[in-house]
Structure formats: structure tokens, C-alpha cells
Design a protein that fits this description.
- The complex is a heterodimer of chains A (about 400) and B (about 375).
- With about 400 residues, chain A is an alpha+beta fold.
- Chain A has 3 domains: about 5-125, Acyl-CoA dehydrogenase/oxidase, N-terminal domain (Butyryl-Coa Dehydrogenase, subunit A, domain 1, Orthogonal Bundle); about 125-235, Butyryl-CoA Dehydrogenase, subunit A, domain 2 (Beta Barrel), CATH 2.40.110; about 245-385, Butyryl-CoA Dehydrogenase, subunit A, domain 3 (Up-down Bundle).
- Helices cover about 50% and strands about 15% of the residues of chain A.
- The longest helix of chain A is centred in the C-terminal third of the chain and has 29 residues, at about 280-305.
- By secondary structure, chain B is of the alpha+beta class.
- Chain B has 11 helices and 9 strands.
- Chain B has helices at about 5-25, 25-35, 40-50, 65-80, 85-95, 105-115, 215-255, 265-295, 300-325, 335-350, 355-365; strands spanning about 120-125, 140, 145-155, 165-170, 175-180, 185-190, 200-215, 255, 260.
- Classes of the chains: A alpha+beta (about 400), B alpha+beta (about 375).
- Chains A and B meet through helix 9, helix 11, helix 12 and helix 15 of A and helix 7, strand 9, helix 8, helix 9 and helix 11 of B.
């Protein structure tokens, strides 16, 4: 057994770290990301960076070779996202990891090459249109419907929490194409809806942490070539998202950032010397360290399992629950150390606002990307062999 | 990065699993409970199979395998709640002596461990509550021979041990001393503890001993003993947690209430999912400490992290396993209680979670100076 990354893997991480700091996280881009409006991306510098990321081959890096990618293994794929997120880059996970390759595999030839080119070139992004006001975790209950009209489909409905739709060129949309309630899972189809379609609109939702959107579809007419996969065959495309992507939601570098930055601050300034010598402060740091160490190893081990040919489903679900709850816990452990300064915003904020934002942005991790309750059920049934619940 | 066991390690796993499946039956374990939870026949079988010398050098009859391979055996011992003192004897007491394996008295003690003819332990606690290595035991030199005077408490496997090493002072100089347990200067009495294993109180009243190391080398040996104890406990605990979770999962799949298996209720299933996550964290922490100790990397942090997860997982998994079993879990005719008593024993043997966190936190704060 060897728990260390290989020399090649370490060099790869370092290469990405250097690339991110030298080419991506430039001062002008950091300033743009600091604006609430562009905090997820979508600003002019964001698009420059996306095109550069695409031109440098990083969006295609994790795609399979037969789909035009570089075929990176799951461990490299994880390390790439980990370093990007550690750097604070709004990593285009949907293009690079989850939806992009699925689209390339199942898209119809009339649109495939053009849109794949846009995605891999960093010219287009896509948002996921799954959740609806009355369909969240129970996705199969969604009501947005698509009806056949000659060679076209007419789409009507509403999606919510469609993150990044405000600057995306396409919505990866799940719609009901068979209204028979007995076929809840089987009556869904995936469409790629261009956001410049007539009848499409988008409004912002200001949450306590991030900006997201509601998207509306009123008699949106799209040609059949924008249907992805079989009619009524959408469910496997929805649930078949790669487990390594779930891991990336709670990647170590992403979660450890607050601990790393807090510790750097405590070490750097003599003002904090007294805090560092305080037993309960040391205890908070120790709890964070011990739990982060496990997260780092759990992420890498899960990615390794997938690389070895396992599905990694249970490992990814367990890691997602642990990592997302640790994210929230860390936000408390670290903020306690600097409290009440931890709540200051604007020019007086500590750690450039990272600590203050952490709480406002953090809770989404425990229900986003598959609610932790669902992940726990996966661990219980697939990991422990317990019978399924009612 | 490779989390696979080597082929040899898998053989050790299979061999120990098979041996322990034969010996750790409910009937035999019940019998061992009357004997200080020690099965002498099993211990001798382990010696005969080469398992006691697994991580000891060939010069004393061992198989010269690394510490990581020993953790494979330790996990199986935990999985079967085996009634043997492998953790204190094979890890905490024996491994720190390896750099001195060619010293005659050490060589003899380790040779006896391998063959099963003797048992080596370490007495690391004085009377009273202190768990630290600071010791009031005194070493006196008379006519070129060394004699120890002091009280040692909670010596693991102390009633079975043939040799023991401990910490003593000689005019302010801290040293590590090895002594034979069968001699007039050593009086032993059994101490009972929660998991049923017998410990011993040693009254050293002129126990003739040999000095192994002094000063910085003595400190290094004590640090090594602590690292081995923490990492080996994590491995044993991983096996205990696997065992508890297997029992809980089986029980909740079979037992029905309100017409449904217990495990189909989310409130039950999610508690066990949390146990699975705790166990997964403990396992990786244990693997990290084992690999670092094997490779001779400074394992101070990884051993403390492993100790943290040991206390966390043992406490949480044992209580939740009991909870989902209801009365069945506490019944002495059902195997779960032994795992839980061992869980409590190991958790507190490490000094408890807050002492582990205090050590880890003070290291983090001190790293600033470095």
C-alpha cells in the first residue's frame, strides 16, 4: 500500500497550481470575481480565461479520447479540479467533467461537432435545468413538458436553481415527454435548449450566498436535432453522472482553503500569537486538521478506486456527505477563532471576506449535488446492504 | 498511490482470518472471559503460524515483515475480538526495541515472543492517574548491577509477561530498563479492566534490570512506542468497527418491526451510514499512519490523526450499533457486547479524544516557530 501520490501525480498537481496562479487567477480576474454579479463567472475576463483554458486543452483533459478528449484518469481528473478550486477558479465542471462528455456521446450529428467545439473551446457554457418549484430531490416528478410538433419540439415549463443560466449559451434540460404517471422515470427526455431561443427567459434569484436563476420556457420551439439521447430515455443520462464529479464537489483543496488561510493568518502576525497559544484555539485547529486529513485521503482513495475500475459510487457518496458537512463545520471552527471579526464584510473583512462568505455560501453543499439524505441512503443500501426504504 | 495489499499481505489476512474464525467462536470466547480474556492455545497457534514474529527480524526467528503488514493481522484480531494481547506485546512493547535487537537481553526477549515461549510487555504508567512517561521509579547501581524501585500500574498482559521494559530515573537521568518478570524483586497482582483482559500492577522492590538506553535515545524510544501504540490501535479498531457494523447491518436487514426490516427506516439506515463514514475515515487515517511508520517518515501527526479517528469511530460506532440492536445488543449471548467493551477500552487507553486533540493542536501551534 502506498498512500502518497506518485512523483508524476505530484508534478501534475504542481503544474496545475502554477498554471492557475500564473495564467488564470490574475489580479484583474480576481477583481471581477469579487463582484457579486460575476462571482460564478460570466464577466468579460471570465470568458477570456475560459477560452484560454479551452485553447490550453484543460476542458477536454478529462474527456475520453474517443470523444476528442485527453482521456485523463480519474485521479488526474480529481487533482486538476482540486487545484483549480483551491486557486479559487470557477471551474467549468459541467463542461469539463459531467455534462460535456455525456452530450458529446449522445448528441445528434447535426449539432454535435459545432457545440462540442464551442464547449471545448471555452466559448460556451451550459446550465443544468433539472429542479423545478415542485421537483427537487424527487426529480422524476418534474412537470416541464416537451411536445412533438412535426420536426420540432415545443417546450413549456419552469426550472429553478438553474445556476449559471444567466451567462450560459445552453440549458441541459430534462422535460417530460410521456405524461403517463405510471412511467415517472421513463417518460423524461433531455434537450439542449439554446438560451437565445424565442420564449426562453431567465430571472435572477439572490440567495444569501450566491446568485442563481429561475428559467422559463413558454412555447419554446427547438428542432428535434437538439434532443439528446432517446425519446423517453433521459433518466440514465441524468443519473449516470460520474461519481468522480461528486467527489470534486467536496475536493480537499476546496474545503481546506479556509483552514489553510486561517492558519497562515495566525502564523503571519504577532497580533495573533496569544490566540495560537490558547488551548481552545489549538483544539479547534486540531479538530479541523484531523478531519481534513481524512477528507484528503477519502477523496484520493475514491478517485483511485474509480481508476481501478470500480464504480466508486459508495465511496463518492460517503465522501460527499463527509466533505460537505466538514465544510460547514470548518466554517464554524475557524470563525470561532477570529470571532467576532469573522463576520465583518467589505474593507474590514478578514481573509479578504473568505471567512464571512464561507457561512453564507456553505450550506448549499450539504443539499446541492444530491442531498446528503439521498447520499446516506446510497451508503446504507449499496455500502452496507440494508434494505431499501419505503 | 496504491491502496491494494501485497500478495503476501493478502495471504496473512486469509491465514489469520481462517485461524481466528476457528478459535474465536462464541464458546471459546466465553471460556476466555474466565481467564483474563486470554486464550493461550490461540496465542501458541499464532506463534506456530509465524504470526507473533511477523514484524520481528529473522535473527530472533521472525518473518521480518514491515509494520504495515502487522496492521493487517491487527485488523483481523479486532474483527474477531481475539482474546490475545497482540497490540501491547507485538506493537507497543516489541517494535521500539528493534534498533537494539542485537543486544543480548533484547534478543532473548524478542526470540521468546516469536516462539510463544515468553511474552514481552512495556510498563508505561506509574500508579495513579498519570499516563505520561514521567516516572518516579528509581534505578540504583550496586556492585555493577542495576535494581529498580517503584510502582507500575495497568501493565498490559502483565500477568502473562516474562519480560518487561519500563522508564526509570538514575540521578535525574531518564533511562529505559528491561527486566524479567519472574524474580523476587517483582511482585505482581492482577488488575481487572472493562474489556476483561487482565492487566497487572507491578511493585518493583529491587528488581534486577538491564539498562537499554538513556537520555535522548530513551525519549526517542518512548515516542516510537507511542506512535506504534496509536497506529496499531487504529488498525485493531478498524477491525472492531468492521465487526460492529457487520453485526448491525445484518441485524437491521433481518429484524422486522411494523412489518418492515429495521434498516428500511431512514432514521436507522442513516445512523448506520454515518457509522460507515466514520469507519472509512478511521481506515484511511490508519493506513496513512501505518505507511508512514513503515517508511520511517516522521509519523507524529499521522499517528495523532489516527488516534483521533480511533476515539471518534469507536465511540460513535459502538453506541449506534448498540442503539439499533435494542436489547439484543447488550445481551451477553450475542457477540456485540465484546466489541463495545473493547471499543471503550481502546478509546480510553489512548488517553481519550481531548488529550489527543490537545497534543495535535499544540503541535500545530508550535509549527509556527519552526
Amino acid at each position: 500500500m502506498n498512500i502518497e501520490l506518485s512523483a508524476e501525480q505530484q508534478a501534475f498537481s504542481q503544474k496545475i497550481r502554477d498554471y492557475m496562479s500564473q495564467h488564470m487567477m490574475t489580479d484583474d480576474f480576481k477583481a471581477e470575481l469579487a463582484c457579486e454579479e460575476f462571482s460564478h463567472g460570466g464577466g468579460p475576463i471570465y470568458w477570456q480565461k475560459m477560452r484560454q483554458l479551452g485553447a490550453d486543452g484543460w476542458i477536454r483533459y478529462s474527456w475520453p479520447e474517443e470523444l476528442g478528449g485527453a482521456g485523463a484518469d480519474p485521479v488526474e481528473q480529481y487533482l486538476l479540479v482540486d487545484e483549480a478550486k483551491r486557486a479559487g477558479f470557477p471551474w467549468p465542471a459541467l463542461s469539463a467533467n459531467s455534462i460535456g462528455p455525456v452530450f458529446a456521446k449522445h448528441a445528434q450529428p447535426e449539432i454535435r461537432d459545432k457545440i462540442v467545439g464551442e464547449i471545448l473551446g471555452g466559448e460556451a457554457y451550459l446550465a443544468i435545468g433539472y429542479s423545478e418549484p415542485s421537483a427537487g430531490s424527487d426529480l422524476a416528478s418534474l412537470r416541464t413538458r416537451a411536445e412533438r410538433d412535426g420536426d420540432d419540439w415545443i417546450i413549456n415549463g419552469q426550472k429553478i436553481w438553474t445556476s449559471c443560466a444567466n451567462f450560459s449559451q445552453y440549458i441541459w434540460l430534462a422535460a417530460r415527454t410521456d405524461p403517463d404517471p405510471a412511467k415517472r422515470h421513463k417518460g423524461l427526455t433531455i434537450f439542449l435548449v439554446p438560451t437565445n431561443s424565442v420564449g426562453y427567459s431567465c430571472t435572477l434569484i439572490q440567495t444569501m450566498g450566491v446568485v442563481t436563476t429561475t428559467t422559463y420556457y413558454q412555447d419554446v420551439r427547438i428542432p428535434d436535432c437538439y434532443r439528446v439521447g432517446e425519446v423517453n430515455g433521459g433518466w440514465p443520462l441524468i443519473t449516470g453522472q460520474l461519481n468522480v464529479e461528486r467527489l470534486s464537489l467536496v475536493s480537499y483543496g476546496h474545503v481546506a482553503k479556509l483552514y489553510d488561510e486561517t492558519l497562515k493568518l495566525l502564523y503571519s502576525d504577532t497580533v495573533y500569537r496569544e490566540l495560537l497559544a490558547t488551548p481552545w484555539v489549538q483544539r479547534n485547529l486540531a479538530v479541523a486538521k484531523a478531519r481534513l486529513s481524512a477528507l484528503k485521503l477519502m477523496c484520493l482513495k475514491s478517485a483511485w478506486k474509480i481508476e481501478q475500475g470500480g464504480s466508486g459510487m459508495v465511496e463518492a457518496s460517503a465522501t460527499k456527505v463527509f466533505g460537505s458537512e466538514l465544510y460547514v463545520e470548518l466554517g464554524r471552527l475557524m470563525a470561532e477563532i477570529l470571532a467576532p471579526l469573522s463576520n465583518l464584510r467589505g474593507d474590514d473583512a478578514v481573509l479578504n471576506g473568505l471567512m464571512e462568505r464561507w457561512y453564507r455560501k456553505g450550506t448549499v453543499h450539504t443539499f446541492g449535488g444530491g442531498a446528503n439524505e439521498l447520499q446516506r441512503s446510497i451508503v446504507a443500501t449499496a455500502g452496507l446492504g440494508l434494505p431499501r426504504g419505503a | 498511490m496504491d491502496f491494494n495489499l501485497t500478495e503476501f499481505q493478502r495471504e496473512i489476512l486469509d491465514l489469520s482470518d481462517k485461524l481466528l474464525s476457528d478459535y474465536c467462536t462464541q464458546a471459546r470466547l466465553r471460556k476466555a472471559e474466565d481467564l483474563g480474556y486470554f486464550d493461550a492455545e490461540l496465542w501458541q497457534q499464532m506463534a506456530d503460524a509465524g504470526l507473533l514474529g511477523l514484524a520481528l527480524p529473522e535473527s530472533v526467528g521472525g518473518m521480518a515483515q514491515d509494520f504495515e503488514t502487522l496492521t493487517v493481522l491487527l485488523e483481523q484480531l479486532g474483527r474477531h475480538v481475539a482474546p490475545v494481547p497482540a497490540l501491547p506485546v507485538l506493537a507497543t512493547a516489541s517494535l521500539p526495541l528493534l534498533p537494539y535487537a542485537n543486544v543480548a537481553c533484547v534478543q532473548a526477549a524478542l526470540r521468546a515472543v516469536c516462539s510463544g515461549e515468553g511474552m514481552l510487555t512495556a510498563a508505561l504508567a506509574d500508579s495513579g492517574f498519570t499516563n505520561s512517561s514521567a516516572s518516579d521509579t528509581l534505578a540504583e547501581n550496586r556492585d555493577g548491577k542495576l535494581y529498580l524501585y517503584g510502582e507500575k500500574s495497568r501493565v498490559p498482559a502483565g500477568m502473562q509477561a516474562s519480560a518487561c521494559w519500563t522508564v526509570a530515573q538514575d540521578g535525574g537521568d531518564v533511562g529505559i530498563y528491561l527486566f524479567a518478570c519472574e524474580q523476587v524483586g517483582v511482585k505482581r497482582r492482577a488488575q481487572e479492566t472493562t474489556n476483561g483482559q487482565s492487566l497487572a500492577h507491578f511493585s518493583l522492590d529491587g528488581a534486577q534490570a538491564e539498562l537499554l538506553v538513556k537520555g535522548a535515545d530513551a525519549d526517542a524510544m518512548l515516542t516510537a512506542a507511542r506512535h506504534y501504540q496509536q497506529a496499531a490501535t487504529a488498525a485493531l479498531a478498524t477491525g472492531l468497527c468492521e465487526g460492529m457494523l457487520a453485526l448491525a447491518s445484518e441485524h437491521c436487514s433481518e429484524r422486522k418491526q411494523f412489518g418492515r426490516p429495521l434498516g428500511s427506516f431512514q432514521a436507522v439506515a442513516h445512523q448506520l451510514a454515518d457509522c460507515y463514514i466514520d469507519k472509512a475515515c478511521l481506515r484511511v487515517a490508519s493506513e496513512q499512519a501505518a505507511c508512514q511508520l513503515r517508511d520511517g517518515i516522521d509519523a507524529e501527526e499521522s499517528a495523532l490523526v489516527a488516534a483521533y479517528w480511533t476515539t471518534e469511530a469507536l465511540h460513535r460506532i459502538s453506541h449506534r450499533s448498540q442503539q439499533v440492536h435494542g436489547g439484543t445488543g447488550v445481551d451477553r449471548d450475542y457477540p456485540l457486547f465484546r466489541y463495545c467493551l473493547w471499543a471503550r477500552q481502546l478509546e480510553m487507553d489512548l488517553g481519550g479524544q481531548n488529550s489527543v486533540l490537545a497534543a495535535l493542536g499544540s503541535n500545530i501551534a508550535a509549527a509556527h516557530a519552526a
